[in-house]
Amino acid sequence: MKEAVRLGEAARGRSAPNPNVGCVIVDDGKIVGQGATAPGGRPHAEAVALKQAGKKARGATLYTTLEPCAHASERGPTCAAIIPAAGIARVVIGIMDPDPRTSGHGTRMLRKAGVEVKSGVARQAARDSMSGYLSRIERGRPRITLKLALSIDGKVALPSGESKWITGEDARAHVHLERAHSDMILVGRGTYQADKPKLDVRLPGLEQWSPRRALLTSGEAVAGWEILGSPQDVYRLHDVNDLLVEGGSATATAFLAADLVDRILIYRAPILVGEGKQSLGYIGLDAIADAHGRWRASDGARLGIDRLEVYERVRE
């Protein structure tokens, strides 16, 4: 299942609106087939793995990070039907699919066809990998990640506005990897006018995975950019699983004030700016007590001279 999760994670940012599922087929202790959801959502991970396994799928165990789909689609057959047809004897599932068209139906179809089913294996790892899809199904909006590049003292720029570059090359490369795993990147109108950012992926071999670009603005449309008039417009992004918010300060503040940020990536550089531009404005907190318990540190890493801090929003 760990390998299935790894495969699914590699497909994050490419499978929307479908989930980024990973699948591994094992026979006699050996992997005979593996796959992930293809770009655009089809074929599904199970179909990819079954095609690779061929006749070796008969009697084998299939590991999948998400319950196999059970709803009919013009784009292909249901996985809950092709799995038993291929002769799979046992299916191990990471998490059940919250999509009401499949939820529970997929496992019932498999069991009815004589396939042994076990669920809940590596559940948290599977949830983490598909958190964007799960957010869209359960909350009606993408998972939203806010990226901030800060000095030690929390500044994003000098008083003049100069901010290029606060962080080093390793940190910037990591940002490009995050872009490749996102369906859409959003910045504010001010950042667009000041920097004219491309927001593309400039890592060798991943250039084709540059995500869609969006502006948070009440102004006129810009060619090549999608427009969100307010943070609440994320609820109409029905084909986006993972949204990356990159700037600037006003945009970050607006999303935090609306309590729409699920994850924060802070790239902290070993520099002191002193007087300079703050990363955030007023986000609706009037007491320190209200700030506690809202965020938990979930990860961190050294990126060359810089430090990455990852925080997750604590929700019910």
From TrEMBL:
List each copy of the CMP/dCMP-type deaminase domain by range.
1-117
General function of this protein: Converts 2,5-diamino-6-(ribosylamino)-4(3h)-pyrimidinone 5'-phosphate into 5-amino-6-(ribosylamino)-2,4(1h,3h)-pyrimidinedione 5'-phosphate.
Name the pathway it acts in.
Answer: Cofactor biosynthesis; riboflavin biosynthesis; 5-amino-6-(D-ribitylamino)uracil from GTP: step 2/4; Cofactor biosynthesis; riboflavin biosynthesis; 5-amino-6-(D-ribitylamino)uracil from GTP: step 3/4
Question: Is Transport one of the keywords?
Answer: no
Keyword check for Oxidoreductase: yes
Q: Which GO terms describe its molecular function?
A: 5-amino-6-(5-phosphoribosylamino)uracil reductase activity; diaminohydroxyphosphoribosylaminopyrimidine deaminase activity
Please give the SUPFAM superfamilies that the UniProt record associates with this protein.
Answer: Cytidine deaminase-like (SSF53927), Dihydrofolate reductase-like (SSF53597)
Keywords attached to this entry: Hydrolase, Multifunctional enzyme, NADP, Oxidoreductase, Riboflavin biosynthesis
Recorded protein name is Riboflavin biosynthesis protein RibD
Which family does the record assign? In the C-terminal section; belongs to the HTP reductase family. In the N-terminal section; belongs to the cytidine and deoxycytidylate deaminase family.
Q: What is its EC number?
A: 1.1.1.193, 3.5.4.26
Classification via NCBIfam families: eubact_ribD (TIGR00326)
Q: Which taxonomic lineage does the organism of this UniProt entry have?
A: Bacteria, Pseudomonadati, Pseudomonadota, Alphaproteobacteria, Sphingomonadales
